Structure of DNA primase:
Amino acid sequence: MESQVEEIKKKLDIVDVINRMLPLKKRGRHYVANCPFHQEKTPSFTVSPEMQIFKCFGCGKGGDVFTFYEEFNHVDFREALEELAKIAGIKLKNSFDEGQNKNKKRILEINNEVAKFYHYMLVKHPLGAVAKKYVMDRGISDETIKLFGIGYSPEQVSLIANYLKKKGFFDSELIMTGTFGNSSYSNRLYDRFMGRLVFPLVDFRGQILGFSGRVLPGANPAVVGQKAKYINSPETEIYHKSQMVFGLNLAKEAIRQDSTVIVVEGEFDMISPYQAGIKNVVAVKGTAFTEEQLQLLRRYAETLVLALDADFAGNHAAIRSIELAEKLDFDIKVVDLLGKFKDPDEAVRDNPEWFKKRVEEAISIWDFIINSAVNTFGLENNKGKKEILNMALPFISRIKSEVIRSDYLHRLATIIGSDVESVKKEMERKISNFQFPISNREMIKTILVEKEPERDKRDEAEERLMTLIMGAKNKLKVAKRVDADLKFATIKWQKIMDLILANRIDWEMPLENVTEELKDIFGSTFLMAESESMESFHRKKEIDKIVAKLKSIDLKKQIADSAQRVAKFEREDNVEELNKAESENIAALLQLSKWQKLQK
C-alpha cells in the first residue's frame, strides 16, 4: 500500500488538489486561503508546493494531500486513497478493493442500479407515464429530469427487487441499502418507494447515497400507505440525513464563485430555480439545519440566503438553526416572497424573473423576522405588540454582535412605540424562560467546539524555539548556540535538532532528508517559521528567554530530585553521599538563579 500511496503523492500536486476544493492565492513561495476547518477573517491556511504539505496557523491542522482530502471531505483514509488515485489516474491494486469498505461499495453499486431502474421507469416505461406527465406539468424539462436522475417506482411490490436479484444481488445486500424492506407477512422484499416519484440523494462527490420519494396525486393508499408526502431512505452505512444537502453536487461551483448559497426546503424548490438559471441553490429537509449541513455549506459560501416556506420564522427549530449559522459567521439573508407564493417552486413556475429579483433583493434575516412579526400580528393593540416581541426577540437575542443586536432592539422598540430598555428587559426575561421542544434536541443542538486537552507547556515552548531556529538566517549557527545550553526533552524536536546540527537539511528542499515520521511536524514548523518576519535582535532575545525558561524547568526538577536524595541520605546517615547531594543542590540553585534572571 505504501508504494502506491507514494506513487499517488508523486503524481499529484497538493496545490492543484486543494485548489479544486478551496480557492488559493499565491503569497511568496506559498499559497494561502481562509481555513476551511475553522472560521477566520484573515487567511492563515498555508500550502507549500515545495514540501507538498498544508498547515493552518489558526487552528493547527496540517498534513499532506491525503490528510487534507480526508478532513475536507469527511472520509476515511481508504476513501481518500481511492478518490485521489482516480485524480492521479492510477489504478489501485485489487487488494484495495476488498476489506472493510466492501459493504459501502456494494451499497453504492446497488444504489446506482436502483437509480437507473427508477429513471428508466419514469422516462421510457408505460408504468411511469402518469408520473412523467406529473413532472412535465410542473414545468420540469427532459434535460433536467436526466440531470437530476428523477425516477419513478411503480406500484408493484417486488418488481425492482426481482430485477436486481437477477443481476446477482442478494436479499441481505438489498436490505442493507435501506431501499428495501422484508415483509413479515409474505416473507419477501418490498420497495419502500413504490408508487412514488423518486429523487436520488447525491452527495457533493457525486455518489448516490439514498433516495427521497414523493407521493403522486391519486396514488393508491394501499400501496403508498398513510405515510408522509415525502419519505427518505433510512440511515445506512453511507446515508446520514443530518449530512445530506440536496443538489450540492451540481451547485457547489456556482456557490463557490458567488460565495453565496440559496437554501430551499424541498427537491422541487431546488430543481425549479436551478432549471431557471439560479445555479447556487440547494435543498435541506424542513426549516431546521444541522451543524453538519451548515459546516458543509460554509466551505463554499459566506452568505446564506434562506428561501424557505413563509411560516419558518415562527418555528423553534429555525431559531436554533439561525443561531448555528451565526456561530459559523454566515451573513444570513432571506428571500421574502411577500405572501404571493407559498414556496420557491411555485414562484419560479409562475414568474421566474420575479423570483430572481427577490433573490437579488434578499433582506437581512433580522429585518425579515421583524417584518414577518409585524405583518402577522399588527400594531393595532397591545396583544399584537406582545406577540411581535414573542416572535422576534428569541431571534434577536441570538445576534452575536452586541452593536447589531442593540441596533435591532432600538428598531423593534421604535416599531412598537416603546423604549429600548423595556424591550431589552423583555428579551432578557424571554431568554431565561425560553425552552426548545425535547423532540428537536438532537436536530438543533448548539455547536460545541470540543476543546482538545491543553498541550504540554514544555512541548509548546520547544515548538516555538524550533520555529525561531528554523526562521533564522544562519540556522546552523543559532542551533549550535542553543545546543550548547539545552537539550530538547521532546524526542521529535531533538531528532530535528540533530538533523540541523549535522547540517543534513537542504533548506531549498527541506523535506528531502527528513524521515517519514518527522515530515509533517518538520514541514508545518518550517512553514510557520517562513511566515514570520522578525529582526535578528528580537529573534535572539526571544530564543534566550525560551532557553532560560526551559533550563529553569530542568533545574527545578533537578533541585527537587536532589532534595529528595538529601533527605534520604540524612535518614541513612550516609555522610559522603549527603555531601555530594547537597553540593549538587546548591549548584543547581545557583544555576536556577542565573537562568531566572535571563527570563526577565
